[in-house]
Amino acid sequence: MKETLNDIGEDELIRRLMSGVVLDETVILGAGDDCAVVTGLPDGMHLVLKTDAMVGDVHFTMEMPADLVGRKAIARVISDFGAMGALPRHAMITLVAPGETPVAWLLDVYRGMIRIADEYGINLVGGETCRGNQLVISISMTGSVAASKNLKRSGACAGDLVVVTGQLGGSLRGRHLTFEPRATEGEWLAGNPAVHAMMDLSDGLAKDLPRMAAASGLEFVLDEAALPCAEGCDANQAWSDGEDYELLMAVDSADWPELSAAWGKAFPLLSLTMIGRFVEAGSGCRPALLGGGWDHFTAAGSTLKD
Amino acid sequence: MKETLNDIGEDELIRRLMSGVVLDETVILGAGDDCAVVTGLPDGMHLVLKTDAMVGDVHFTMEMPADLVGRKAIARVISDFGAMGALPRHAMITLVAPGETPVAWLLDVYRGMIRIADEYGINLVGGETCRGNQLVISISMTGSVAASKNLKRSGACAGDLVVVTGQLGGSLRGRHLTFEPRATEGEWLAGNPAVHAMMDLSDGLAKDLPRMAAASGLEFVLDEAALPCAEGCDANQAWSDGEDYELLMAVDSADWPELSAAWGKAFPLLSLTMIGRFVEAGSGCRPALLGGGWDHFTAAGSTLKD
């Protein structure tokens, strides 16, 4: 039997596909983080690159409000920039669509994209359309980050606290279409040296927290009772639903009280919650929660994504 | 009846979708050219951005050599950079694939991408994979161009000669998988002030020459007998087959003899052929050739692309 994508997870697939890639000295951060970071900009800034695709009947359906589908496509990428403390500036849109797609529906999708792009100061500088038998909306975005702020997911240290913004779980009831990407919050957090690592929660804490730990060569212990559950959600959902688009970070434990107090003043309407601790490899503890987050190929995810 | 993508052409679709887009002063060149160009780089350079997607059973099939499919995905974008006189530096790969796709096939595709990226000094800095019911390989690339060289497709003047590199037609017999993108040639041509406008021939002369003329507010007269036909092809095929990935340009007629002679010394193995003339709107002449080039939605293209 030939091995197929169904047999291996998304992370393992990317690892195999990208092995053999040689990078030169312009690359600060290649595959594996929220965004790629390369040199080339003046004044102590780095260029930040990101692509993100939404597939019809996987990430959205034609029954959802079209303008919110477009909004989501752009907001997901802004969220990734936020997780790096970076500022998005220019975007391109790649659209694959069946020939029978109604023009009016697509115009609504683009209207949603244009509106949120304007709101965040992002220029839509082009893209491409081509025919296919399934809708795909892929966004490619560039922007900048101060070299000093550039926050990888691999920077967590043993003893750092696991901290998240906002509430988790139940996003597919609607929040996945209307979430506010944590751009300002991400920039604020990236400017604080107490924050050692950051990423956004797109595939769910169950998938993304182990990723951050692994990238940092660590494991983690979760305080399940501390999980900030969205209204109507339990800890299992907060752990594994995904599409939260909140920020996950590693915070120096000595600095936590001060960071937490400053956060409360800067963002009084958004919670910042300590939910666990990063520990040395070998001393972590897999939580006894249900579900494992979303994997694009081994697919133990939500109804929509299945 | 609702209007669908089948009812309007690709160019009209993009025009409608992108209407309402507001650009700020950082954008030198937005949607509508081979690449987008924005400010931000030091030393008189601009940042160049491009995305390009290939769809399974539209641009390639799984029966084609997988490494050449990967090579083509990257080469198409290098070709667009060549058409701007720009240098590509960093690329991201978006892969949409069915779960039953063989891992080995994808590894071969990526092997082809990695090889040509290395050859052209392009860093593969990341990307994304997601599940879908059709293969899509989308490449997003950034690079740089000297502000002084930045060659739009809209710069043609009435009286300029229509000039193309290489031979045209019959690409789907194999050349569409093995073509050498005109990167060096594009940079050389962009550095010559006799060249007023340039683009690459991806959808075919029948589609791309009218595009250049329209972008420049002009029409054209074609010398059909002068078309450089690939071996075994007639003028109709050279006109409309597409996927040539040669360069199309507008050249100041007074400078043509000198440019042509210098070209012959710089690139003795590649022809540079004058095939017509740009003229004022109203005085052009639609060639009496068959076929109209490739449109992604109204689809009067080749067997493969249909």
User: Averaging pLDDT over every residue of chain A, what do you get?
Assistant: 92
The quaternary structure here is homodimer
Work out the radius of gyration of chain A. Answer: 19 Å
Integer tally of domains of chain A:
2
Care to count the β-strands of chain A? Answer: 11
- Outline of chain A, from the CA principal axes? globular
Q: Quick one: which chains have the greatest interface?
A: A-B, 83 and 83 residues
Order of helices and strands of chain A: HEEEHEHEEEHHEHEHEHE
Give, in spatial order, the strands making up the sheet with the most strands of chain A. 1-2-3-6-4-5
Give the helix tally of chain A. 8
Under CATH, the homologous superfamily of the largest domain in chain A reads PurM-like, N-terminal domain
- The proportion of residues forming helix of chain A, as a percent range, comes to 25-40%
> How much beta of chain A, percentage-wise?
25-35%
CATH class of the largest domain in chain A: Alpha Beta
**Major β-sheet annotation of chain A:** 6 strands, mixed
The CATH topology of the largest domain in chain A corresponds to 60s Ribosomal Protein L30, Chain: A
Helix- and strand-based class of chain A? alpha+beta
